[in-house]
Amino acid sequence: MALKSWQQGAQLVLTNSPIAIRMGSINELAEKTGSRDFILHSIGMSPNVRKDIPYEQTSYENMLKTFDISALSFHRILQTAYRLDAIREWGSVVALSYVAAQRTLTGYNDMGDAKALLESIARSFGYIYGRDRRVRINTISQSPTPTTAGSGIHGFDSLVDFSERMSPLGNATAEECADYCVALFSDLTRKVTMQNLYHDGGFSSMGMSLKAIEQYKKSFEECDCDEKE
Ligand SMILES: NC(=O)c1ccc[n+]([C@@H]2O[C@H](COP(=O)([O-])OP(=O)(O)OC[C@H]3O[C@@H](n4cnc5c(N)ncnc54)[C@H](O)[C@@H]3O)[C@@H](O)[C@H]2O)c1
């Protein structure tokens, strides 16, 4: 995303947690892009997902951590940017979300609640930031994408396969997500704000697709399981 925005002429500031900076390649990316314009919130982590603790067995502390890192961090970033007046008029803020904010998906755990909160913060701050500074705030609800965080979800590969079969255009890739972010940062989307925008090949509007039902039927033909009845 950073690379794509930079290629389109954006100036950037790249940030992450100290551990991710040490272990990842953010410094190389910063050197390449010469790291100042819009904000992308791309932070997510759930101790429950990470430790395979089911939703019904979580502790208050674990859930607080999930909400703090994955959603309240968005409020804090916006609050700081607003206080420092760090975003230009007609600037743009995007946070990455997932359809588990609206629909229950097995294995996504308390991240579904965190995403619902994240999308709500985009609306609440979107009103204030739009009214006072003409800054727009949206969330992109992205297809499941193989990344570090994504791969931590229980049954992630099956989820990717299922949504690929369910989506008429197929899953949106990380590269395509970067393109959509660039579109939302551009001046061509100046009046789009307080929206959760699905970038998922159509998944969120589907009930059942031919490809998915064919695979579902096949699974019953191949086994002699009780669920047949
Ligand atoms: N991968 C998917 O399938 C998918 C789908 C839809 C939305 N998203 C969202 O996209 C965003 C980016 O996730 P990703 O899939 O690229 O995975 P990722 O693991 O590459 O990114 C998660 C980021 O969160 C950061 N992070 C975690 N804990 C932090 C903390 N305490 N403080 C600061 N930063 C912290 C990590 O360092 C990492 O950079 C997340 O909000 C995720 O929920 C991912």
Largest sheet geometry: 4 strands, parallel
The name of the CATH superfamily of the domain at 38-154 and 168-206 reads NAD(P)-binding Rossmann-like Domain
Oligomer: single chain
SS summary, helix count: 10
Summed over residues and divided by their number, the pLDDT gives a mean of: 91
Q: List bound small molecules.
A: nicotinamide-adenine-dinucleotide
The main sheet orders its strands as 1-2-3-4
Number of strands: 4
- Supply the helix-strand structural class: alpha/beta
Structural description of this entry:
By secondary structure, the chain is α/β, with parallel strands linked by helices. It has a domain of 156 residues: NAD(P)-binding Rossmann-like Domain (Rossmann fold), CATH 3.40.50. It is built from ten helices and four strands; from the N terminus they run H-H-H-E-H-H-E-H-E-H-H-H-E-H. Strands 1-2-3-4 form a four-stranded parallel beta sheet, with helices on both faces. Strand 2, helix 6 and strand 3 form a beta-alpha-beta unit. Helix 5 packs parallel to helix 6. It is globular. The termini are far apart. The relative contact order is 0.13. The mean pLDDT is 91. Bound molecules: nicotinamide-adenine-dinucleotide (NAD).
